[in-house]
Design goal:
alpha/beta, Rossmann fold, Dihydrodipicolinate Reductase, domain 2, seven-stranded parallel beta sheet, five-stranded mixed beta sheet, 11 helices, binds nicotinamide-adenine-dinucleotide, binds ligand LLHOTIJI, DapB_C, NAD, diaminopimelate biosynthesis, EC 1.17.1.8, DapB_N_CS
Length: 269
């Protein structure tokens, strides 16, 4: 048997799940050892390779994560917050690296990951692409260089099936801007403007979300002042950028001590 790390993909038939299956199988750096879907999914019992257009891989979609987690070195999870919390406990029991791409988790849900991180490596990021993680560093730097004469606005656009807003990426960029400014995002965040909102509050960091069609993911960080604007932009045109980042994280985590990490750690940025 190959000694390449065994990887389980949860939410394997989703938009990201299918891209992750292809990325892992075609990488030559890991083995696909499981594909998990929610109970009741029509995919249960079918070969995930066939479902993804790769031809049969001998990996059948299962709803019970336990057997496949037990033979895995990593679990890559782009599903939904409640599912991710369940997978975190089970991945920790199996001492498998848990790569979490799921967004829309509340602060309270994120705190619930702590017990699992005592026993296993958790790598979580609202965006796993190299480009966005680099953009967070640039955002922090620009925000630190400018004062509050520059209004910071994060504008994001995604496909019409996305269920959470602001996007995980927008929140990462907002956190980076707040950190650069030396403030807490909680104190200055302004999202969901509608109606008579009053004038913009100096120092706020604003968020706007567009949802439409098949947009993969686009983010602008705007620094708007009197007479000039600086715009930092990232456009993802293919989900493979997220999947490649997630696979990199799963491999990077193999020799790390239990704890919580992000893509800045993985990419060494
Ligand atoms: N971090 C990143 O780089 C990044 C990139 C893209 C998407 N995402 C996030 O990943 C998540 C999924 O996005 P998507 O576009 O693939 O969504 P999707 O709806 O296409 O796929 C989610 C899949 O998870 C499955 N699922 C839900 N609950 C489950 C459970 N309890 N057990 C097993 N499977 C379950 C669903 O059936 C579905 O197939 C979202 O939170 C999204 O924001 C993150
Ligand atoms: O398609 C999605 O959903 C995406 N989610 C992440 C986010 O919330 O930022 C990353 C981009 C795509």
């Amino acid at each position: 048997m190959s000694d390449l790390p065994g990887i389980v993909i949860t939410g394997a038939t989703g938009r990201m799940g299918q891209m992750l299956v292809k990325t892992v199988v075609q990488s030559g750096k890991a083995r696909l050892v499981g594909a998990i879907e929610r109970e009741g999914s029509e995919a249960i019992g079918q070969d995930i390779g066939t479902l993804c257009g790769l031809g049969p891989l001998g990996v059948l979609v299962e709803s019970d994560p336990l057997p496949s987690f037990a033979r895995a070195q990593a679990v890559i999870d782009f599903t939904a917050p409640a599912a991710t919390l369940e997978f975190a406990a089970l991945a920790a029991q199996a001492r498998a690296v848990h790569v979490i791409g799921t967004t829309g988790m509340t602060e309270a849900e994120i705190e619930q990951l702590a017990p699992a991180a005592l026993h296993a490596v958790i790598i979580r990021a609202g965006n796993m692409s190299l480009g966005v993680n680099l953009l967070t560093q640039l955002t922090k730097k620009v925000a630190a260089a400018l004062d509050e004469d520059y209004d910071i606005e994060v504008i994001e656009a995604h496909h019409n099936q996305k269920v959470d807003a602001p996007s995980g990426t927008a929140l990462m960029l907002g956190e980076a801007a707040a950190e650069g400014r030396g403030v807490s995002l909680k104190d200055v965040s302004d999202s969901g403007r509608d109606g008579i909102t009053g004038a913009r509050k100096r120092g706020d960091i604003g968020f706007s979300a567009i949802r439409g069609g098949d947009i993969v993911g686009e983010h602008d960080v705007m620094f708007a002042a009197m007479g000039e604007r600086i715009i930092l932009r990232h456009i993802a045109s293919d989900r493979s950028v997220f999947a490649r980042g997630a696979l990199k994280a799963a491999l990077w985590g193999q020799d790390k001590s239990p704890g919580q990490y992000d893509m800045i750690d993985v990419l060494g940025l």
